[in-house]
Design goal:
26% of the residues lie in helices and 15% in strands. It is α+β, with helices and mostly antiparallel strands.
Length: 297
């Protein structure tokens, strides 16, 4: 009898944990298959293909500290961290905070859009709670490990990335999850997608394999870094540097066109359309503060 009770409890837990987050792509099956920004026919269903903002950037940070180490907010040892998934128009322009009814950013930046619209800071439940409502403890754990903010809680960065960028991607529109949409479903699905695309690019390992590792004594050339990543991705990424002479490597963007939905489609690597801000020589890829990292499995 006891074993049956335990089995029943386990079944209940399994059922309680399963809340689908995927969109409805049933109508996409009969539509033309085409890459964003490369379509030769008019896109008739914006839930099946990325409309506008079809140049998609997977962005990663190399920070050396978080500022919240005392709160246990640490960077993943042996890995870059997630910035986000940034949608850009095919001509290189971009929009931000495209749907203010789904604005969850507590500190919007910018606080006012170019057209003068003021973005009201969000004061409701954290997006972390959205993830918990879908019982996705696995996703939350991964995000808390690899999607790390600097100077503010991680969930503030997650909220900004969805509000500022996720709302500008057509395949994350609420209508794409009908019928049966559950509130915040697309937010959790966006986070899943960001994680999926991040996992395509193990930047730390690709650089290390080419002999490029964090160092406080050795600098690298832009060609060394770019060539190492090109050899594994087939495209030149954007390198972002800051600090004295813009010589400190902090960010990398990988560019793509997307075949189908951003959630499940194919990401085709492209060369960056934006000039790197790093110099040709003397680039610092600094070691992290030892107490700012944690070992991840």
């Amino acid at each position: 009898m006891l074993s049956l009770v335990i089995l029943g409890a386990l079944v209940s837990v399994v059922h309680a944990q399963f809340y689908p987050t995927y969109p409805n792509i049933e109508t996409c099956v009969s539509l033309p298959v085409q890459y964003s920004c490369e379509n030769t026919t008019v896109v008739t269903n914006s839930c099946c293909n990325v409309v506008q903002n079809g140049l998609v950037l997977q962005a990663q940070y190399w920070n050396t500290y978080t500022g919240l180490e005392s709160h246990g907010q640490l960077l993943p040892k042996g890995s870059w961290s997630i910035h986000g998934l940034l949608p850009v128009n095919c001509n290189g322009t971009f929009g931000q905070y495209c749907d203010l009814s789904r604005q969850y950013d507590p500190k919007p930046s910018p606080s006012t859009l170019p057209n003068g619209t003021v973005i009201t800071p969000y004061k409701g439940p954290s997006v972390k709670q959205f993830i918990q409502e879908f019982n996705r403890s696995d996703l939350l754990h991964y995000m808390d490990t690899f999607w790390i903010n600097q100077g503010a809680p991680n969930e503030d960065l997650w909220a900004r990335e969805f509000s500022q960028h996720g709302t500008c991607t057509s395949t994350f529109d609420v209508a794409c999850y009908e019928p049966g949409y559950r509130e915040h479903q697309e937010v959790v699905n966006f986070f899943e997608t960001v994680v999926k695309v991040f996992q395509m690019y193990p930047t730390y390992d690709m650089l290390a394999a080419a002999g490029i590792s964090p160092s406080n004594t050795t600098t690298y050339t832009r060609a060394q870094i770019t060539n190492a990543l090109y050899s594994q991705t087939g495209a030149d990424p954007w390198l972002g540097c800051y600090g004295e002479n813009d010589s400190i490597l902090q960010e990398i963007w990988y560019f793509h066109h997307v075949l189908g939905t951003e959630q499940y489609g194919h990401f085709k690597p492209l060369d960056s359309i934006t000039p790197a801000t790093c110099p040709e020589t003397g680039i610092w890829y600094f070691e992290r503060t030892p107490t700012s990292e944690k070992v991840v499995s």
